[in-house]
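Sample entry (199 residues):
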Amino acid sequence: VSSMQQRFALTADSHVVEIAANDGYLLQYVRELGIPCLGVEPTASTAAAARAKGIEIIESFFGKALAKNLVAQGKAADLTAANNVLAHVPDINDFVGGFTILLKENGVATFEFPHLLRLVADNQFDTIYHEHFSYLSLIAVQRIFANNGLQVFDVKTLDTHGGSLRVFAQRADTGLHPVSARVQDILDLETAAGMRRIE
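Predicted structure, serialized as tokens:
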């Protein structure tokens, strides 16, 4: 939260939305900084736990329809966070398209997910389980995002879940952030590993 607040100059005039906010663990730190925030969490018990921390929660699944509803209520986002949820959604295009709608003109969407390259390279069979609909490379994510109006402008590697990516995206029509060389570096690694070929 501190890193995002500094990098994107978030203030009391900003709005942060976390998708799959769980029990509000991340958003409690956004709230502590005095930044208005909102969580979307479909599970009743964890939504209740977040509300107990004083965090506003929408108890619903996220997609284009909910994003339009939030924007109509004046709840467009300067920053969205979606950590370890992208692989879990059955309709990934409806889900990603919702971020394009929800973001303000120069808003930023962040996503974290286990990196397919690490899963394959390290034979991480024990990270494959039924709740996952997708196993994601940056190649695939960049294509899905582009098809839904988002541009990937930065990426970081993380150690979580055997090796994850944190992807930063912006609206393709209005975003101002230059594309980091790190994006091409990861794409090149995946290409070298054969991830553009079905074999």
